[in-house]
Amino acid sequence: MCKNKDHPCFKELQFRRYSQRTGSLDIYTGSQMGQGLWRVARNQQLQHQGYSGQGYLTREHGRRLATNSISNTNHRKQAQGGIDIYHLLKTRKSKEQEGFINLEMLPPELSFTILSYLNATDLCLASCVWQDLANDELLWQGLCKSTWGHCSIYNKNPPLGFSFRKLYMQLDEGSLTFNANPDEGVNYFMSKGILDDSPKEIAKFIFCTRTLNWKKLRIYLDERRDVLDDLVTLHNFRNQFLPNALREFFRHIHAPEERGEYLETLITKFSHRFCACNPDLMRELGLSPDAVYLLCYSLILLSIDLTSPHVKNKMSKREFIRNTRRAAQNISEDYVGHLYDNIYLIGHVAA
Which residues belong to any copy of the F-box domain (predicted)? Predict the structure, then answer.
């Protein structure tokens, strides 16, 4: 038993005995009793931590310890957060020190392979860092030929001061000019020595280029039938099914939006070219260029009939076979049926 009268345990015991004698113990609720016991235990802990030669802790000393305890807790939280921030700053600093991969330190073939995946804009930006690598002629030559597959200047001895980077800029400028005015665009290419003034060379350029506006191209080909003739001969329809060959043809030479003389010209040129590429098939099926012409027109009308939302009563397979054989009696029924199935499953031939 504690005999020190100043000790909290002794005072608590005295109060309990007094309460039992007077019957006033009920003024202590369960929560108040628990709080009192907690204060006793807490005071004992503080006394053991702050015991000095003069005795137990004073109230002011205990308050300072409690304040220090709270500040230590806050310091640990701040320190923990500080460690995370420090780690992030350290990681960021290390990444900044590492920087981008220096392509000049890699083998040349690997550096060129990495840069070959860039387009012209990104390659110009890369030249600000790796000037010798990004300005390499092989890279710009690949960009030119991947976008403009054929140019007359490719097969000529390059003039003094020639560079494929400069050629790329000229080709891009000429394509933009063509998309605004086809005649001016072709004249620009010729003035720079990129194209020769030949229908065949122009046709090859158009056939191997995908950056030209198809509406402007259709206008240009309608005016330059000599270029159109050479462009048609560049297509190879050997061993192709007729609807698939017609789709490929209209993918390079877009069909007009309306029927007219230009559409008839395109179908006529396609029919002769298709027969020239498949002489054995024509003999086997007994088809002539005129018969192929009728089949192409029938396929275009069938495509419109099956794909147009305005046509409610779609043409049946039996109706298509009957109408087609009525126009061309030598065509077999099975072959015409396969034509219908192709349009029904794949879609329009001139979309």
Answer: 100-143
Is this structure's pTM higher than 0.90? no
Tens of pLDDT, residues 283-341:
988 889 999 999 999 999 999 999 888 888 899 999 999 988 887 777 888 999 999 99
The CATH number covering residue 268 comes to: 1.10.1000.11
76 found inside a domain? no
Question: Is residue 1, in this structure, part of any structural domain at all?
Answer: no
Q: Residue 268: is it exposed, middle or buried by C-beta count within 10 angstroms (0-12/13-18/19+)?
A: middle
**Domain of 313, in residue numbers:** 235-351
Residues 168 and 123: their CA atoms lie apart, in Å, by 12
8 Å CB contact between 147 and 176: no
Mean pLDDT (whole number) for 238-242? 94
Judge whether 168 and 124 are in contact, CB under 8 Å.
no
CB 199 within 8 A of CB 226: yes
Alpha carbon distance 89, 91 (integer Å): 5
Residue 129, token pair as written in the block? 């860092």
Whole-angstrom distance, CA of residue 75 vs CA of residue 15: 40
- Asked whether residue 290 is assigned to any structural domain, the reply reads yes
Task: Tell me, yes or no, whether 29 lies in a domain.
Answer: no
pLDDT at residue 112 above 60?
yes
Residue type, 39: R
Q: How far apart are CA 187 and CA 205, in angstroms?
A: 13
Q: How wide is the angle at C-alpha 155 spanned by C-alphas 139 and 204, nearest 5°?
A: 95
**Considering its fold, how many domains does the chain have in total?**
1
Amino acid at residue number 338: H
Q: How many whole angstroms separate alpha carbon 226 and alpha carbon 216?
A: 17
Nearest to 243 by CA among 306, 163, 200: 306
